[in-house]
Amino acid sequence: MTHDNAVAVTVHPAWLPDAALAPLRELPSAVLGSGPCLDTARAELGASPSASTADAALVVAAVSDVGSPASVGLTQLPEVPAGGHAIVRTADRTVVLGADGPAALRGLYAVVREVAVARLSGVAPGPGTVLSAPEQPLRMLDHWDNVAVHPVMGQVERGYSGGSIFYADGEVRADLTRVRDYARLLAATGVEAVGINNVNVHAREARLLTDGLGDVARIADVFRGYGIRIFLSVSFASPRLLGGLDSADPLDPDVAAWWASAADRVYAAVPDFGGFLVKADSEGQPGPFAYGRSHADGANMLAAALRPHGGTVLWRAFVYNHRQDWRDRRTDRARAAYDHFAPLDGTFDDNVVLQVKHGPMDFQVREPLSPVLAAMPRTRLALELQVTQEYTGQQRHVCYLAPAWREYLGFRLDGARSVASIVAGAGGGGAPAGGVAAVSNVGDDEFWTGHPLAQANLYAFGRLAWDSTLTAEDVLDEWIALTFAGAAGPDLARVRPALHEVMDGSCQRYEGYTAPLGVGFMVTPGTHGGPSVDGYEYSPWGTYHFADRDGIGVDRSSATGTGFAGQFPSPWRETYESVETCPDELLLFFHHVPYSHVLGSGKTVVQHIYDSRADAVEGLGGVEAAWESLADLVGSAVPVAFDARVRERLDGQRASAVEWRDQVRSYFWRKSGVKDASGRVVY
Ligand code: GCW
């Protein structure tokens, strides 16, 4: 049974407003061939199926549908890269050739983007051929959406944008219009896979795998038209929960047989199904440990079930003891993923991808990269990012995450290989590519993402998964050019610098008034929003800062601490090991230091904490002024509702930032008794 819970709100078009498509829709165009994505391309352009290429100024095709160069009006066909596209511009036409239908559609959106960016920069693309290949084969968004509203977590776990676009009232929505609009937005960024339910799989959601398959197929049908595959999060206990077996032991043949037939049924309903996403033995989710089996046993058993159909298991490395005794100083949550998984390198089947959070803890605004990414060269790896702003301002604070993601992707973990190249299959141990996944920030909110400016994070994720060498500033320009494509030229020229002022340094600013120097957390337990310096200090979650009257930080050195620093390859193990060489922004992640410890800036740790919290809040003045400078464009370049929402969020951000500043500054004054040399007020 499904409900029609469509809510009549005007949904903001995000980065695909009609104005962005209009310049292409005005051209005589032809789309060759057919198939779900080519049909979508045709509908986007309003091209008629019989349009001839002879007089088309824009031609879109998949290479396999192109007989001869002349059939698309060219003298020669380019080498279209695998999974990617070529855009050929001649004096009288633009030809988009995709490696297949989905790639052709993405190529069309690339032209939309180029046209918009040309308007912003004033530089039109000249004749020639541009080839574009995805750096990562897997470019996926994970939804932590529950079908039924969860009593504690709500409908979307860590969601800050209203309800789910997929589910309402305990059912898959009858009206999937929002899902289609979402698929369209994602296709334009290059995203090619979506996990449609929460990795914490509760009872109702587990059944998507069995009696929910009809609804799953409806969702897959929508995404198919945009070249996006779907994955399901499954409960490792499914054979017991759904199959009536008394075990979920991965080495039990009955269990394996149950999964094999479950997979058969899924593929009968969804032939292009991506596979299973699994959170096992983590935060209360069931897993192979209950049967004394390893995570490789568990993952490989599921992989065997999917293999005949070409499916993939995305197995998460986020496994740690969430019932730690805070008195126990030997257990270090940061070590857990490496300790569990590094010894298993080389034992996972080749249709298993191990999905690793970027940091060893949990999506903090500042963490080192996870050493797991350098420790498993014989395992397919995917990097997991968080677009939803759980710990980065919950879509109430502006926090443009692209600069941080770019840093992670470009980080040379062993001194030589970047994280992007490792997950793209160049890790040196022969494992094929995994890719990049991220938790989505989308809900049924009228702006998709709560804070309208948080749309830029969703956009940037897809773009950086496609090409991690793009700069965060260029990606922001693209987003501005598309989102404000309807703005008059001179207005657009004002929107651009104002938004850069608001967004470029926003992540650093957020870091500036929240937890200092990489120590992390200090957030309100449960919601993870707002400050609570000691909120997790005596909790079982393994997230401590150890502040006392003399100092703060976690000793993770090999010499005197938990040994986490030793999980890195050189040169990072040495760099992080020593207080002298550890970068200041990670100092308290790796070391416990006295408040009087002097940083590279010449300030003591405690004075740095005092100053940067206050400076960061002062920096919000520039942000607010930049937005205010666009006030006369509200109602024209900037929609009224967009402006109203941004203002409401900026007000909330200031109030929250002030709270962070005052609580953190006062906490350290009270703890340390060291006066703030700036003389600013502490409480
Ligand atoms: O960051 C934590 C979140 C949990 C989440 C978990 C995970 C889905 O607080 O809500 O659960 O990470 O990544 O599995």
From TrEMBL:
SUPFAM superfamilies: (Trans)glycosidases. GO terms for cellular component: extracellular region. One of its GO terms (molecular function) is alpha-glucuronidase activity. Signal peptide: none annotated. Residues 449-680 form the Glycosyl hydrolase family 67 C-terminal domain. InterPro entries: A-glucoronidase_C_sf (IPR037054), GH (IPR017853), Glyco_hydro_67_C (IPR011099), Glyco_hydro_67_cat (IPR011100). GO terms for biological process: xylan catabolic process. Gene3D superfamilies: Alpha-glucuronidase, C-terminal domain, Glycosidases. It comes from the Bacteria. Residues 130-448 form the Glycosyl hydrolase family 67 catalytic domain. This is Xylan alpha-(1->2)-glucuronosidase. It comes from Cellulomonas pakistanensis.
